[in-house]
Design brief:
Helix 2 links the parallel strand 2 and strand 3. The protein contains 11 helices and 14 strands. The chain is globular. It has one domain: Rossmann fold. By secondary structure, it is of the alpha/beta class. 38% of the residues lie in helices and 15% in strands. GO terms for molecular function: methylglyoxal reductase (NADPH) activity.
Length: 357
Amino acid sequence: MPKVLLTGGSGFIAAHILDILLARGYDVVTTVRSKAKGDAIFAAHPGIQRQKLSYVTVEDVAEDGAFDEVSTLQPRDPPIELQSLTVNVAQAVKSNPPLDYVIHTASPFHSNFTDPIKELLNPAINGTTGILRAIKAYAPTVRRVVITSSFAAIANSVSTPKVYDESSWNPVTWEEAVTEPVQAYRGSKTFAEKAAWKFVETENPHFDLATMNPPLVYGPVVHDLNSLDNLNTSNQRIRDFIQGKCTDDVLPPTGTFLWTDVRDLALAHVRAIEVPEAGGKRFLVTAGLYSMKRLVDAIRQTHPELSSKLPKNPVDDTPANIYGYDNSRATQLLGINFRTLEMSVQDTVASLLKIST
């Protein structure tokens, strides 16, 4: 079977990608930031033979040369010893047997930054271009790289289009990103994705590229998570509602009125390495429009036992002239049949309640 390098394998989205890859028979080597995270991945897949799944530690994906060195670790007898062995930094791209595909989900992000250039913008750009340089130099068998970008690289708050699609780009400038904190994250995603496309255009590597551009991502948690304090940003909204932290009828602003389920997004990543025509394309991976009111209504509908913790008459902030979206590339080319918001919320809430008990 083909072999895939999956970066950031312990993350919210990547954990779902890993499940799909293994279910479809791929051999997977994933990067993690620590031995503990790698061992947790092994523990979550006890029935998977070690030759089908391995991990290496890359402590900082933005470090120069982080993916350059050779990872020659292959599971052999005795497996227990190899499962507990980690490699410091930079050992991912070269492997034996060689890689066929790379799915790059790992991207530095945190909201508590003081220097947007050093702590957010440069790490995002360097992490993306760094792995592409390493693949070109050391992994000649890789045929395609799929990168997790974001709707943040598509959204336009200056001149909102009537319909968002893959031709849309965020017009954020470097000056805005370094001076306006709210623009720093959007800039990091936009500049990192643009750097990836520029790399392919100017370096003419042996692989092609596809990018995933999801908006807010909801869905059940399957990665190792011991506290709801460490949830991804989108799911924190659902957590706050089911914990009774937002009982006012005036809800937090929706902000981005597009969403997707993490399982559909994960499948889109995998389909992007399976569908030949996906190469060279961006994908707006969204299930459609929603709002905070619709989210609350979905929680009440799927988990009526939580009604007392929810706003009784939530106000919908969806504007009358809300933008549209075109997700036909994801549905038609990748074959994604998106879940409804109610389906996603039902499974997400159940997942969060399980972690909190």
